């Protein structure tokens, strides 16, 4: 079975994501929220489709401004559902808006989305899935696993012999620091 580390290098979309983002720790709440939004929108589609639409997602969701998205109403929802640049799925759009409100609440209670994740670290994949299902909408095992791997909370984004893996370890991802 081919691994992302075999397929991504040199690809115009997968390459930069693989080499500079996938698996690296993310501390910024906007970037964490962006990754959650992208993973939710990937469900049932290829990751390449999502990467190609990433700039359109940034534009449509105002740079992933969590507070603004949490306040979206019917007009914004309809705007998003007619935006051909993004994935126009009502369940996914509704989940993004709802989840923005959840992240705001997590920020109020824990200081940040990142701190909420750190508060629950370390968990098994199955326990993360249970937590995300209780907390967010549209977060099944695949979405949760990819979100956590992509942001450094679960191992497995890269093979051990991938050159990017050493850079990720040097960046101190949460999965490599179980006592934190």
Automatic annotation (TrEMBL):
Q: Could you state a single Gene Ontology molecular function term? A: metal ion binding
Q: What's a BP term from Gene Ontology annotated to this protein?
A: base-excision repair
In terms of superkingdom, the source organism counts as Bacteria
Organism for this UniProt entry: Halomonas heilongjiangensis
The record's section on SUPFAM superfamilies has: DNA-glycosylase
Under the heading Pfam families, the entry gives: Adenine_glyco
What is the official name of this protein in its record?
DNA-3-methyladenine glycosylase
Q: PANTHER family given for it? A: DNA-3-METHYLADENINE GLYCOSYLASE 1, DNA-3-METHYLADENINE GLYCOSYLASE I
Q: Which UniProt keywords apply?
A: Metal-binding, Zinc
User: Which residues participate in Zn(2+) binding?
Assistant: 5, 18
